[in-house]
Amino acid sequence: MNDTLHRQPKRLADYQPPCFTIRTIDLTFELAATATRVTSILRFKRNMPGNMVLDGQQLILESITLNGETLTAGQYELTADSLTLSNAPDEGELEIVTLINPAQNTALEGLYLADGVYCTQCEAEGFRRITYYPDRPDVLAIFSTTIITDNHALPFLLSNGNKISEQTLSDGRRVVRWEDPFPKPAYLFALVAGDFDCLSDNFVTASGRSVLLECYVQKGDLPRTEFAMASLKRAMRWDETRFGLEYDLDRYMVVAVDFFNMGAMENKGLNVFNSKFVLADAQSATDLDYFNIESIIGHEYFHNWTGNRVTCRDWFQLSLKEGLTVFRDQEFSADMGSPTLNRIDAVKVMRTAQFAEDASPMAHPIRPEQVIEMNNFYTVTVYDKGAEVIRMLQTILGKAGFSAGLKLYLQRHDGQAVTCDDFVQAMQDASGIDLTQFRRWYNQSGTPELTVKQQYDAANQQLTLDISQFTPASAEQAEKLPLLIPVRIELLYQDGTPARAELLLLSEQQQQFKFDQIPQQPLVVWLEDFSAPVKLHTSYQTTDLLMIASSASNGLARWDAMQQYWSLLIAEAIKQQQTPVLSAELIAVFRGWLLQPLADLALTAELLTLPDFDTLAGQYHEIPVAALLQCLTLLQQQIAKSLQADFAACYQQITRESYQYSEQAVAKRALKRRCLGYLALTTEGENWVAQHYQQADNMTDRLAALQSAQAAALPSAAQLLEQFAQQYHANVQVMDKYSNLVAVTLSDDVFSKMQQVTERSWFSWKNPNRIRALYSAFSQRNPQQFHRADGKGYQLLADVVSKLDPVNPQLAARLLTPLLSWRRYDKARQQQLIAMLSALLAQPGLSDDVFEKVSKSLP
Ligand code: TRP
Ligand code: ZN
Questions:
Q1: CATH class of residue range 20-195
Q2: Annotated domain spans of the chain
Q3: In degrees rounded to 5, what are phi and psi of residue 479?
C-alpha cells in the first residue's frame, strides 16, 4: 500500500455528482462459503460527461459484459479498488460476475459467513466488497435479488422488499427471489441466509394496511424475542402519532446475528441487528438491555423515513440521517418512559464521550469536511451532538414548527439523496425563522463555552443577565464564529419557588438580557434541560447548587446541579491540595431524599450518584488522574459512612416484586441498587451484597450485586463472580456481562483475570461483542487500572488494537479511541502513549481505519 496515494482524504468540497446513474440492479448470489458467485446486471444511464467508475474491493472479476458483448482486459481498467470503463455508451446494460469469499471475511463488511449465517453489512462502503458498483449514497437504484443455494442448512434466504418467488430446481438447489420497489443506495442492500426461529406478527397501519412483521433469531431464542417485537409495534405506532409517518412495504423483517460491528442496521425492509439488541428475558437481560432494545428497534425503524426514503447525498452528510434519527429515537424513548432519565443519559454521553472527542485529535464538526476512512466517522459527534443540534432546532422552532419542518423536508425530498443544508432549508421555509447563523453548528467543531453573570437592581426590580460565548480552537479548526445558542433558564426565588421561565437566544459573542418586574433577587437555573451542547461557567456557590437540586422544576436541572456541586467540591479540593470534606448541608439534603424519595425514584437514584471519572475529567485541560480517583473514592466512602442507616432504611423501604419491565419497577430497582452501592462500602458490605445476590430473581438485581461487590473491591467478589460464570456459562450474552465485571476489577489481578477470559471456550477473537465486553469495559469503566501510572493499562489496549487490526479494522479503530487523547495527561503518560501510538503506526499493512486516527493523533 502506498501511503501517500492510497491514504489521501476525500473532501466534502470536492463533491461531484455521479457520471452515471443506475436504474435497476439485478443481483444473483450463488452462495458458497469460500467462493460465492455474484452476478450483477446493471441498467445504467449517463448523468454527466466522464468515465464510468465502479468501486470494488477484494473481488475476483470473472467476466464483464456490455450490451451482450464480453469485454476483454484492454477494454476496462482494473485497480485494487475500482473498475473503470472509459468508453461507456450513454445508456446500456452491464453484466458483471465476481467471486467473493464470505468465510474469510472477518472484517464483517460486505458479505460474511459467521456462525453458519451468511450476512451482509453494506454501510458505509461495504457493497463494493460484493460487486463492482457506484458505491455512493447518491446513486439510487431499484434492486432485485436472487439467492441460490444447495445447502439445506440455510432454510431462510432473505433480502430487501417483497418475496416474489421461491422454487427448488431439478438439481435440488433452492432459489428465492426478492424485489424492492423503492429505489435505494447500495448501502441499504441486505442479504441474510441461515437457519432461524421466526417470531411473526402483524401491524395494521393508520391507513389500514396490514404489515407482516418477522423477527428471525437463533434457534431456541423465540421466548426472548417478544420484547423486541412489542417494541417494534410501539415504534411503528409512535411514528404515526407523533410525525404522521407510516410504514411503506408489506413486510418488515428483523434478523438478529451475533457477529456484528455495530448495534444494528436499517437495510430497507430487512434490518440486521446485533443479537445483544434483540434478545431479552428477565433471567438474561438487565433493565438497561431492555431499554436499549426498545430504543435501537425504534432507531432502525425510524430510519425508514429519515435515512431510507430521504437519504444522504454523500457520507459527509451522515448526521442528516443519524443525528435526526437519534433525536427521533430519544423522543420515542422519552415518551415510552421517563423524559428526565432519558435526558440525563443523553447529557452523560455528551459530557463524557462527545466533549472528549471535541478535545481530541479526532475533533470534527457534525458534518465533517474530510475523511480517510468513513467508518471512523460513526461518532458521538455525528450521532449524539447531531441529535442535540436537531433538538435545538425543535427548541427554537417549537414542537409544532419542528414537525411542520420535518413534514416539508420529507415531502420535498422523498426519494432523493440530499444534504444537511436541504434539511435546514426545509425547517426555515416551514417556520419562516431565519436559520442562517444556526447553520454554523454543521461546520464548526469544538465545544462552545458560555460564561454567565447576573446582576440584580433592587430599586428598579430589574434583572440583567450577561452571557458570552467562546469556542476554543479544535485540532482541525482554529477559527470559530459565534453560534446561535438557545439558552433556557428558570428563575427561582430565594425560598426555591419558581418565578419565571425563559428561552434566551444567544447570537452575539457577548449579549445582555434584561427582565423587569422581578421583585427579589432570584437564583438563575442556567441551561435548563441542557438546551444546548455547551460547557457552562457560572459563579454558583455550593449552596446555590443544592438549592437548585432541591427546587428546580426541571428534573434534568436538578440532577445537573448535583453534578456541578461535586465538580466544584472536587475542583476546590484539588486546587487546595486537600481531601474533600462533606458538608452537613449535603448530608441533610441526601438524607432528605433517602427518607422521602421524590415521586420519581429513578431521578432520586441519579441525584444520589456522583459524576464518573470521565465527566469530571472533561473539566480539566490536563487531567489530574490520581487526584480525581482519590477524591471520588474518599467522597463515596464518606457518604456511605455518614448515611449508612439512611441507605439501609431506603433500601428496605422498597419492596421486592417479581420482575417486570415497567417505568416504576425499573425506578425502584435503580434506587435500591444505588443504596446497595453505598452499603457495599460499609463494614456490613459483604452481607448486603450476598443477600441482594441471593434474593435476586432477575439479571438486573443479580448484576447489581456483582457490580457493587466489584466497585467496593469486596473479598467475596471473585468467588461470587465465579459462581455466576458457572451458572451462566451456556449463555454467551450473559458471559459478556461476566467479561464486563472482570474488566472492572480494581486490583492488579485485572490483567491475569482478563487474560483468563480470553482463554474460555466461548471467547472468540473474531466476535466484536466478546472483545468489546472485555476491552471497552476496561478502558471506559476501569479508570483506576486503565490509567495506571506504569502504562500497563494503555499497553493492554494497544496490544489488542495491534492484534485486531488485520482481523477487523473497524473494531480495532474503535477500541483505539481512548489512547488518542494523550495530550490530556501528564508528561510521563504522554510519553508512554506516544511510544505505543508510534509503534502502531509502524505496523506493516496497517488499515486505513487505524492509520487515520493514529496519524492524526501523533505530533
Ligand atoms: N446506520 C447504522 C445505524 O443505525 C450504523 C451502522 C450499523 C454502521 N452497522 C454499521 C455503520 C457498520 C458503519 C458500519 O446507526
Ligand atoms: Zn442510525
A1: mainly beta
A2: 20-195
A3: -85, 130
